[in-house]
Design a protein that fits this description.
single chain; 237 residues; alpha/beta; TIM Barrel; eight-stranded parallel β-barrel; 11 helices; 45% helix; globular
Length: 237
Amino acid sequence: MEKEMLKVKIFADGADLGSIKKLYENPAISGFTTNPTLMNKSGVKDYEEFAKEFLDIVPDRPISFEVFADDEEEILKQARILSSWGDNVFVKIPVTTTDGNSTTHLVEQLAKQGIQTNVTAMFTIDQLEKVLPSLIGGPNSYVSIFAGRIADAGVDPLPIMESALDLLKEQENIELIWASPREVFNIVQADKIGCDVITVTPELLARLPLIGKNLEKFSLETVNMFFNDAKASGYSL
């Protein structure tokens, strides 16, 4: 699928530097995000070494690195360190600490210091409404609403995402990220409602060429797949 067919910006989500290097060569990828969970799964041991290699690969597109502290002063300290690594760095700040306390006042402090943030792990419009005043008029920033996880809870994320876009329509410095998509159709949905960004894993990115595929042809290919796999197995009745 050609990038021009989508208005929504695609940010690759991951922590494997080999994959990141390949994805950077793809003009359809407008930015990158990662988080401590993805880094741990990829075997990252040294945060700074990993981040510096990441920035060497991607010097000119947005990259979101996340703080891993839970103490307020440590969150601020880590945010300043992460931000200092590059002009294209956005610091991911979870919307609350682990005890559920809002980080809005921390986001406000960082915005006043000119630090670009990506407020992450948001699930509700109430959370967005609380953090929004801290970001308005500040440096460029993102707000990440975890639409995929909202759907995992049996809740339709579309009304939430549309309400978020309505709140942000006058805010030129703040962009909405559709986070944690579960299927390629989520990219189509995000594009249709005018979402600014969607984070996409390498597994989903590999299926992007399927968008717009002729369904009759897709059906025939599926029938052939079943037949060929059965034949290769040597099954008999």
